[in-house]
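User: Okay, second chain of the day. Same drill as before: sequence in, structure tokens out.
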Amino acid sequence: MKKIIFGCLALALLTGFSTGLSGCDVGSSSVSRSELKIGGKTMGTFYNIIVIGDYPGGQEQLRHEAEEVLDRVNREISFFDKNSELSKFNQHKSTEPFRVSQDVADVVIASLRAGKELDGAVDVTVGPLVNLWGFGHVKTETLPPTPDDSAIKAARKRIGLDKLHVSVGYSFAELKKDIPNLEVDLSTVGEGFGADKLAELMELRGIQNYMVSVAGAIRTKGLNSRGKDWVIAIEHPTAEQNVGQRLEVPVCTMGQAISTSGSYRNYKIDEKTGQRLSHIIDPATGKPITHHTVSVSVVGATALWTDAIDTGLMVMGSEAAIRFANERNMAIYTIVKEGNEFKAHYSRAMQKYLVCD
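Assistant: Same drill. Structure tokens below.
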């Protein structure tokens, strides 16, 4: 689960909802258009929705339909719900094809594409390594503080995007694994997928101005209540890491999605060396990342895509990620710890999102 908080939604993500959400337009205090706001829990985190104007059936209908959408997402891709489609595939200890819904197939396809584009830097089968380092679903007290090379080597044999396959036909979709004990964890993309599904609901109901979020994955469209572009603030940490001292970098979303992967909130200290270990594991080495990039934010057309790619860019580190993004005209924003300072770097395509009227 990503721990980065977007400043405009900071209270929403920490406490579930903030009555002050209105697109971060701090230049004016008058609200010219009415808002509907709801929020709640999903996927072990929070969701929030702001609709400008009316919603068919009102606020309670919005809540009912939104939670119905998110419940369906959980039934499809939850790693924790043992009755979800994904969990049943993971329990399927066979290399025979396994039928899934089109939604599950779509999320896996997006994850495989992101992994291929990033040369394996993001891998939804990496769970055995995450568990090995004490950041996954296995109780950390049962694990050694620092895995040795033989344990890492053994875990790496159980992962790999090349061992996962998707087949889609006119009336079916199937997943297949090359090794029976391969497991897929879509937590790194689930929030983005959920945000996209909420955006689909808004489109279905004819809503032209909205902001939807699941944790740090956000979709916007149209204008906020003040008739201006939605602005999301990326949390910019300080050396002291005190909430009151956070800086916030405004990003004009321009009807796009935005998500962030970060490492400075979720880490542990190696008992032997005293080194800080990130929860983000590099599939190529089987070990936590060691560079000083602490977050990567991505702006793009869908939250599923930005959520699928931001973790891989974190694995690459700021310098390689910026180079990668510039070659592909991608909008990304990175924060790097340089000595006692945190400094921002961003791709050329990101510049237009950092200038808000």
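The chain has two domains: 7-67+201-354, 85-187.

User: Thanks, on to the next one.
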